[in-house]
Structure formats: C-alpha cells, structure tokens
Amino acid sequence: MKSRRKIYFVRQGIQGGFALSVIFVLLTCGVLLAWFLYRDLKLNLTTCLTFAHIKCDRPIELVKETVARYSLYGLGVALFLSAGVGYYFISRVRKGLSVLEEEMREFLEKGEVTLRPGRYPVEIEILREKFHRFVSSHSDKMREVRDLARQAREIIEDEGVSSGRSQGALEKLVEAITREGRM
Amino acid sequence: MTETRSLRFEVKILALVVGGVFLSSLVAGGAFLVFFGRPFSTSFTDTLHTLKHLKEFLFPIVTFALLVFLLVSSLLIFLVSIFSLHRIAGPTVRIERVIEGMERGDFQESVSLRKGDELRGFARTLEEVNRKAHRDRLKLREAGERLMREMDLLRESPGDEESREKLMGILRELEEAAGAER
C-alpha cells in the first residue's frame, strides 16, 4: 500500500497569516529597537572612546549596559506583542469556528440558520459561506417538496387523481424529490 | 463555551512563539558579543579612527544582529505556525470536504481527525448535521418511491379508492417530513 505524504502547510490564510502577523510585529519591534540601540551605542561609544579608551580592552565593556538594557526592554516588548498578536489571531479563527458551530446547532434545532455578523479569517469565511449555501439549498428543496405536495393534494381533492393537472402536479413533485445535488 | 475552545492549545502555541523569540534574541545577542568582544586597539590613532568612522563600525554590527534576530525568529515562528497550527488547519480542510459533499448531496464523507487534532466538538456537530440532512433526504426519497408506486397503480386502475387514499397519505407525510424542517 502506498503511504501518503503528510502535508503540513494546508491553510495559507490560517498558518501563513499567523506566521506573517507575528513576524511583522517582530520586524517592527526589531527595527525600532535596533534604531534606538544604534543611536545610544553611538553616543555611548563616542563618550567612552573619547574619555576612557585607554582603560578598555574590548568594546563590549563599554556597551554592555546599554545592550543589556535594550535587550531586556526589547525582548519584553517583542515577547508581549508577538504573544498578543498570536493569541488574537488564533482567537479570531476560534471565534469564527465557534460561530459556525452555533449556526450548525441552530440548523439542527430549527432547520434554518440566522446569519451572524462578524468578520473572520478568509478561510473560515469560506467555510461559513459553503455551509450557508448548503443550508439554503437544503431548505429550498424541503420547501419546494412541501409546497408541491400540498399543491398536488389540493388538486387531487378538487379534481380527482386522474385529471391532467393532478398528474402534472404529481410528476413535478416526483421530479423535485429525485433531483439531487445543488439546487 | 463550546468545545472548539481549548486554552491548552493556545498556551502551547504562545509558549512556542515566546520560546522562539527568546532563542532568536539569544542568537542575536551572541552575534553582538562576537563583534563587540573583539579586542580594542588602545592606540590613540586607532581610537581616533574608530571615532571618526563610528557609523561604519557600528551600523553593520547592529544591522547584522537585527538580521540574525529576524531570520532566526521568522524561521522559528514559521515552523511553529506550520506544525502546530496544522492541528486546527488540517481539520478545517476535512470539514470543508464534508460540507462540499453535503452540497453535492453526498452524505458519505466523514470528518476523520488525526491524533492530537483540535476541533473535535466541532467535527461531532458537523457529523450530526450531516446525519440529519441525510435522514431528511432519505425520508423524502422513500416517500417519493412509494408515491411513484401508488401513481403507477392508479394509472392501471384509476377508480381504486384505496390507492387514492394511500397517495393522499403519502402526500401528507411528505408535507410533514419537509415541513418538520422549518
């Protein structure tokens, strides 16, 4: 038996979107941090090199405090923001799926779905759209069958079963029942 | 709260993101150390030269450290995103397949989840929806087949009162079956 290769990157919108939003935050934080660090290091090194170069063997001794301070602040901000953005992104996916699940439960209870407002990641929106399309076609089919059955019954009660109209109504009903797939 | 929510999953992903960022900053810090750890020339001329060309000395170091940080963190975040979020993304692909099947009138597809996949509650609800829609269609189809049989019988003997009553019963049944939907 052939073993299927497992594909991991299946949802560009969800997986790629998450990665891109976190990377964007890190990029912004990184560039800002680098800029401030560069500015302070320049100042720091200028002062230190001018007044204390003889006492220092290596530049790390001159810049370690500045680098440590910026690393601490920068890391803190980057961690906080990237975790926040990541959590927000996953929450939106979860929320979209929760809303879709609520709609499914509504369909199970009432046979119809009330559209809930809200914008979610594209792929979740596509799932919702497909589900709504299914519910709509299913409900349309049920409604059509119910209406045609009632119509046929009323015609048969009025004109008897052998009339042309009764036969026509019954054939239309059978056709609606046996039709499969998208309406 | 539905079963779709599982805080453990979120915490795990965020822990991986935090770990990735932390690791990247360690690597970037290491790059800094490599450059700033090199011995300084203590001669006055060299110091003057460094002071004069401080921008050329400092800019590549900061840029290199930033690039190292961004490259490592992007790679780690991308890996976390692909492998960990696959537990949500994978099931959504299978869920989509089932919904597409339902749209086509094919109710045989089922959401098969792998070990460790998320969205189990969601998949169960979808299975219920699939079964209900299938039941509804089967009910209609069965009634339709009985309807056709009675129609054939009535064509052969139009005055048959029993067949007429049966036909009316099936029509009422169909109305109810399709009406119970609402």
Protein topology:
The complex is a heterodimer of chains A (183) and B (182).
Chain A: H1 12-52, H2 59-110, H3 122-159, H4 164-178
Chain B: H1 7-36, H2 44-52, H3 54-84, H4 86-104, H5 120-156, H6 161-179
Percent range of helical residues of chain A: over 70%
Number of domains of chain A: 2
- Gyration radius of chain A, to the nearest Å? 33 Å
- Strand percentage of chain B lies at under 5%
3D shape of chain B: rod-shaped
Count of domain modules of chain B: 2
The count of β-strands of chain B is 0
Average pLDDT figure of chain A: 85
Instruction: Briefly note the structural class of the backbone of chain B.
Output: mainly alpha
Give the number of DSSP strands of chain A.
0
- Greatest interface: A-B, 93 and 89 residues
Order of helices and strands of chain B: HHHHHH
Shape of chain A: rod-shaped
Mean pLDDT of chain B: 84
CA(first)-CA(last) distance of chain A: 39 Å
Helix segment tally of chain B: 6
Q: Segments of chain A where pLDDT lies below 50 for 5+ residues?
A: none
Radius of gyration of chain B: 35 Å
Low-confidence stretches of chain B: none
Description:
The complex is a heterodimer of chains A (about 180) and B (about 180). With about 180 residues, chain A is mostly helical. In chain A, about 80% of the residues lie in helices and about 0% in strands. Chain A folds into 2 domains: about 10-110; about 120-183. Chain A is built from 4 helices and no strands. Chain B has 2 domains: about 1-85, no CATH class; about 105-180, no CATH class. In chain B, about 80% of the residues lie in helices and about 0% in strands. Chain B has helices spanning about 5-35, 45-50, 55-85, 85-105, 120-155, 160-180. In chain B, helix 1 packs antiparallel against helix 3, helix 4 (about 85-105) runs parallel beside helix 5 and helix 5 (about 120-155) runs antiparallel to helix 6.
